[in-house]
Every structure is written in C-alpha cells, then in structure tokens.
Amino acid sequence: MSKHIYPLLIAQFLSAFADNAILFTVIALVMQAAQPASWYIPALQSVFLIAFVLLAPWVGAFADNYAKSRVLIVANLIKAAGAGLLLLNVEPLIAYCVVGVGAALYSPAKYGILPELAGHDGLVKANSWIEGSTILAILTGMKVGAEVADYSITWALIGTVALFLISAAATLFLPITVSRTPAAGSKVVLFFREVRSFLATPRSRFAVLGASLFWAAAACVRVIIIAWAPLVLLSHNASDIADLTLFLAVGIIVGAALVPHLIPLEQLRRARIPAYMMALMIIGLSFTHDVWSARAVLLLMGTAGGMFIVPINAALQELGQQSIGSGGAVAMQNFFQNVAMLLSVGSYTLAASLQVGPIAALLGLGGLLFAATFWVVLRLPEAETPSTPQ
C-alpha cells in the first residue's frame, strides 16, 4: 500500500476530530441557552445534511476534475470558515450549514483518492484504516469537544479552526493527480445521467442503497439516543450522552478492523449479515434498562455497522473509478445517503411530535432496517466479479 495513505490518515483524523468537536460545541451552545426549542438540534443536523444533497451534482465533479489532495485543502478551509462564523456569533444554523458545505466537498475527495493510493488489492484495507481513523476521531473529538465547550465555547471553537487548518496542511504531502477532464454541459443533468448509468447494475445498486440504509439508521439512532438516554438511563447532560456513544464508536472501529479478513470485495453479498445484526441490536437497545447493558448493545451495534459499511464503501469506490469517477460515485452516494438521513431524522421528528416515544422509535427503526436490508439484497447475484460489468 502506498506510503501516501499515512498523510491522508492524519488529515482525515484531524478533520473528523474537528467535525465532531464542533458538533458537540454547537450542541453545548444550544443547551446553554435558556429553554432551547425542541426542534433546534434536529434542525442543526438537517442544515448540515442539506448541503450534501443540494451540492451533490457539483462536489463529485469538482473532486474528479481537480487534484483531490487540493480539494481536501479547500474543503478544510470552508469548514474552518464555518467555525469562524460561530466565533463571530453568527446564527448557528447558518454557520453550521457552512461547515456542512465543507464536509460535502471533503467527502468525495477523501474517499475518491483511496483507489488512487491503494489500488484494488489494498482498497478494503485502506477503507478499514480510514473508517478506524474516523471513528477514533469521533471518539476523541466528541468527548474533548464536549469537555472543552463546557469550559469555554470560545476556546473550543478556536481549537476546531486550528485543527481544520492543520488538516489542510497535512494534505500538502499527498500526490497531485487529476483523474478526469471536465465534462461539458449542465452539472445537474450530467449528475442524474451518471446516477442512472451507475445504478444499472445490481452490485452498484446494493452499494448505494446499502450505504444509504446504514447512514439513515446511524443518524436516526444518534437523534433517538438524545431522547432515550434521559428517559431510560436518567442521563441529563451532553457529556453523559457522549460517553454512551463512545461504545458505539469503539464497536465501529472493531468492525472496521475485522472486515478485511471476512468480507472481500468478491464476496460483497456477505455484508448483508452484519446489516441484519445491526438491525437486531437496534431492537435490542430498546429492551435495555441500565447503562452497562446499553453500552454492550451499542458496542455490538457498532461492530456490526463497521463490518457492513467498510466493504460497501470499498465496492462503491472501485465501481465508481471504473465508470463515472470515484469522486462522482462518492458524491452520488452522499446524495442518496443524506436524502435517506434527512428522511429518517425527519420521520422521527414527526413521530416524536405525535408523542411516539424513543423506545417505540428504536423498535420501529430496527424492524425497518431489517426489512429494507432484505429487500435490497433480494436482487443481488450470489456470485460477482467486481471488475466486470454486470
């Protein structure tokens, strides 16, 4: 595997650390306000996701038409600008939306550069390293971000700005390569034409829909836990909830580490097994009544999730590099998965407004994930050759 993977891992860790630190800083900022509206935190999640949906036709093409290593720099600078707006007391919904714009640009460049650095044989391993680095950043970022924000919102924001800038500097050590020349015509028309072309094969559909299911479930679980933990575990501050989600993150690291030995690209169909396990663990969480049993279930849920999403990401990147461009494929993935996340979080918000409790929401989410996985897998062939069109 290329030595250039190491600067990417450093840059990704720092950027993801800052992403999660700023999220918990904004949550702390909102929670410190007098009687924050119940819709505000879901709204923060939504404005961040909307950037991925609206910018999908452009960010993938941008990542493929320019050197991805330099696109990562631009994306980190945009994220730093969003954090800077919070320092200037700009409305958090607007500032966090700017951070979302940077994240929307960062994602296709981050995942799109992996096939260039790792090649076919090292792609699943490279993805497991990236996912492990990302989850480690989530682990530490949300904890440190929450703790520093409790001490000082200003210092927490200054720290995130500095981390985004250092991450940008780390990407200067990545090679400068351009995989495609710009295509003429409307980016929106081109994007949806590429979507139609990419989804023509069962393997591609499974990769896109599988990733969408994972992130929709993950986003919804995170929002539900914010309501579930105070009700069941009597956790009443952001630090307690951050501590609880550490176990989910550790599980994803474990799953990402195990999966290269269990689910090679040639056996993508095996990814359905951890998807079913993840659904069952979501259901199982609704039956827990104490902190340690909840932590154990979240650990298993994260392990299953890591084993599910890593080979899905690797397959999508390779298929994208062979067809519409790896950056374009990741942008398309982001479009679908963020639409799915908006729908899942929006549906839960609506359900909560209709007095549906978090326990019932967990049961419903787990059942829907299990059924949706079964439906997606139905038309995936038993045996596949990833490098050959279906």
UniProtKB/TrEMBL annotation:
InterPro entries, per database record: MFS, MFS_trans_sf
Q: Which domain of life is it from?
A: Bacteria
Instruction: Identify one Pfam family in the record.
Output: MFS_1
Q: Which NCBIfam families match?
A: PRK11195.1
Q: Which GO terms describe its molecular function?
A: transmembrane transporter activity
Residue spans crossing the bilayer: 7-31, 37-59, 93-114, 152-174, 206-229, 241-263, 275-292, 298-316, 328-350, 356-378
Query: Which keywords has UniProt assigned to this entry?
Result: Cell membrane, Membrane, Transmembrane, Transmembrane helix, Transport
- Do the record's keywords include Transmembrane? yes
Put simply, this protein is called Major facilitator superfamily MFS_1
How does this protein lie in the membrane? Multi-pass membrane protein
Record's GO cellular component, any one?
A: plasma membrane
The entry's localization annotation reads: Cell membrane
